[in-house]
């Protein structure tokens, strides 16, 4: 075929394609209504637009997943709220958004005014705050202990936050990272030379934390379950999740059992069971500089917080989970479901399974998958090891993980206290 003929054919072909395209586009825009011969606009009731107004509108409404392997093994429905799918990567997106909105409504924060949000955190809350501060026109300043991995502070900096790394110190020290954040916020507000105001997010004591779950996580679970569930199981760092969800669900489902899943080294188990805050690692004379009995991050704590106490009367039972069980559960979940979660989610799942076995077959137990395993590669997953081909792994392998690993259980990983990842 010579060049002019080729060009003519291409032009003709393109014309036909364009012509068909234009006709289709016109039909789509002005397609006829079946009930009349009048043209209809594209935004028909059947094609409702679904557009989120910024990142904030992508928070919440996460799927509730039936975990088939755990459900089959227990005879109960084990359902998990997929918070690892939140845009900021964890359940803390809900809390960060709620805290910012509440402060705005109270006139404590105004977008693009130079106002800065301060928080002491080494975990997911910092990431969620950094992301949402950018999205809503604020600066974020995160304080963390200097013994934390550099990846954590780098990530926050990449998200536009300022980071102060302060020497590790006990909570009574004014330079402890949470106290430092509070003090910096106060200094900011008191200094007329710095633009804007300082706002201390204060996730442990701020009512906006549990209320975020009362307003969103709780109602979503209730709706997604069609109002039918027998138990809710969760670990607690600040306590916001378990308190907020319990406070929403309990009045609607008085028979519901709310169960705390607590890692070793945390005092919350004893707080629920016996009303006292005491972990055996806290015993006189045994206290190390770092109270480390777990590699789990984000849950477990050895002090009383407002966000836990506000829901504690509704928490009727607690289960204590070892690192071995959590690691075995995390591997089991990848092996059987292809779901890769972090350490607190694994603890929650062991707690959910133990609760299901206690309740007996036919019950429905709901828990939370707080964040993804990608946030836990250098600690929890490093120790949990790789996953591959353990097709014959059973739930008993998870629940007996402790006795199978006798000798390694109790291994102390130096560096961070229980709940250090909050
Ligand atoms: C990964 C992860 N899981 C669970 C929690 C516990 O949630 P809460 O603080 O609501 O008790 C946290 C807290 O920061 C967390 O970071």
UniProtKB/TrEMBL annotation:
Which intervals hold domain Tryptophan synthase beta chain-like PALP?
A: 57-371
Q: Which GO terms describe its molecular function?
A: cysteine synthase activity
**Compartment(s):** Mitochondrion outer membrane
What's the Enzyme Commission number for this chain? 2.5.1.47
SUPFAM superfamilies according to UniProt: Tryptophan synthase beta subunit-like PLP-dependent enzymes (SSF53686)
Topology versus the membrane: Single-pass membrane protein
Keywords attached to this entry: Membrane, Mitochondrion, Mitochondrion outer membrane, Transferase, Transmembrane, Transmembrane helix
Q: Which family does it belong to?
A: Belongs to the cysteine synthase/cystathionine beta-synthase family.
Its name, as the record gives it, is Cysteine synthase 2
Q: Which organism is it from?
A: Sphaerosporella brunnea
């Amino acid at each position: 075929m010579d060049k002019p003929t080729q060009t003519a054919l291409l032009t003709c072909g393109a014309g036909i394609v364009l012509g068909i395209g234009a006709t289709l586009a016109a039909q789509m825009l002005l397609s006829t209504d079946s009930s009349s011969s009048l043209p209809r606009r594209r935004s028909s009731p059947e094609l409702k637009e679904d557009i989120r107004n910024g990142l904030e509108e992508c928070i919440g409404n996460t799927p509730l997943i039936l975990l088939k392997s755990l459900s089959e093994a227990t005879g109960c429905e084990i359902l998990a709220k997929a918070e690892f799918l939140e845009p900021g990567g964890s359940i803390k997106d809900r809390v960060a958004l709620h805290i910012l909105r509440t402060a705005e409504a109270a006139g404590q924060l105004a977008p693009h005014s130079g106002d800065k949000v301060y928080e002491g955190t080494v975990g997911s809350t910092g990431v969620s705050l950094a992301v949402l501060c950018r999205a809503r026109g604020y600066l974020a300043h995160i304080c963390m202990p200097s013994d934390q991995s550099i990846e954590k502070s780098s990530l926050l900096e990449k998200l536009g936050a300022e980071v102060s790394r302060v020497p590790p110190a006990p909570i009574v020290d004014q330079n402890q990272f949470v106290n430092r954040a509070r003090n910096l916020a106060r200094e900011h507000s008191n200094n007329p030379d710095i633009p804007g105001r300082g706002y201390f997010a204060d996730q442990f004591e701020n009512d906006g934390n549990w209320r975020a779950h009362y307003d969103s996580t709780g109602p979503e679970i209730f709706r997604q379950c069609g109002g039918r569930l027998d138990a809710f199981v969760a670990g607690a760092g600040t306590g916001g999740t378990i308190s907020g969800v319990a406070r929403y669900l309990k009045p609607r489902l008085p028979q519901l059992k709310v169960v705390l899943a607590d890692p070793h080294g945390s005092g919350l188990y004893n707080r629920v069971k016996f009303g006292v805050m005491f972990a055996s690692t806290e015993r006189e004379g045994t206290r190390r500089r770092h109270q480390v009995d777990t590699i789990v991050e984000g849950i477990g704590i050895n002090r009383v917080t407002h966000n836990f106490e506000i829901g504690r009367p509704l928490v009727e039972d607690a289960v204590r989970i070892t690192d071995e069980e959590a690691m075995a559960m995390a591997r089991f979940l990848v092996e059987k479901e292809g779901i890769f979660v972090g350490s607190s989610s694994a603890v929650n799942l062991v707690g959910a399974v133990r609760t299901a076995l206690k309740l007996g077959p036919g019950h429905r137990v709901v828990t939370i998958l707080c964040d993804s395993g990608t946030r836990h590669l250098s600690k929890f997953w490093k120790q949990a090891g790789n996953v591959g081909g353990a097709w014959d792994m059973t739930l008993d392998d998870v629940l007996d993980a402790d006795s199978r690993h006798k000798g390694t259980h109790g291994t102390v990983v130096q560096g961070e206290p229980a709940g250090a990842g909050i």
